[in-house]
Amino acid sequence: MTLNTIMRFSRAATPEEMFTGQWQSRATKLDAYKPYLDQRWQEGCTNAWKLWEEISEQGYPDGYANVRTYVSRVLRGKPQPVGPRPPSARAVTRWILTHPDALAENDRLRLKAVLASCTELKTLAEHVRSFAHMVTQLQGEQLPEWIASATATTDLISLSRFAQHLERDLDAVTAGLTQPWNSGVVEGHVNRIKMLKRQMFGRAGFELLRKRVLLYP
After folding, report:
1. Judgement on whether residues 34 and 67 belong to the same structural domain of the protein
2. Cα angle 163-94-47, degrees, rounded to a multiple of 5
3. pTM, whole model, 2 decimals?
4. Is there a domain that residue 102 lies in?
5. 144 and 177 in contact (C-beta within 8 Å)?
6. Alpha-carbon gap, residue 193 to 199, rounded angstroms
7. Residue 155 is assigned to a structural domain of this protein
8. What are phi and psi of 33, to 5 degrees?
């Protein structure tokens, strides 16, 4: 290492100043997407994998490593706007799956803001709540109409596929959403028998297993 290199390192105020050379000015496939990455960073998105997925949808042809390097070397040193962090996907999911009357006031307001900024999420929330209403109110006769509406929602592929799967066994699903009976008790007994079988595997014969199933709750 030469004396000039040592002096340059000692005078560097940022990590970028330490990495000087011809490779820095060389054009890369990521250059066209850097303004977008900078904007998303300022908006609060600091997940390199998420950023890579977003620009890949826009046509970025390379892998994740280049985006990770750009984030760690360049974006990490840039300040982010001060303000509340956006809610996580898990939090938004919980808010959508919770009955509106059971949501805390703060969560209700934050969900309202999220849905107002994303039409896809708003549509999804409407379908989820209408389906939950069918389940809780036993209104299975509304299922065909719900399936038709969900299938027509081309922006929500997972929801559309879920609706198509329901259509394969429509009579059974409709009965489950209409009749007051369910197989919950039977499923509980099946799980108990499976547990007993696992506990006694290799220890005793069928007769002892039969007595445990019949005599012990």
Report:
1. yes
2. 100
3. 0.52
4. yes
5. no
6. 10
7. yes
8. -105, -5
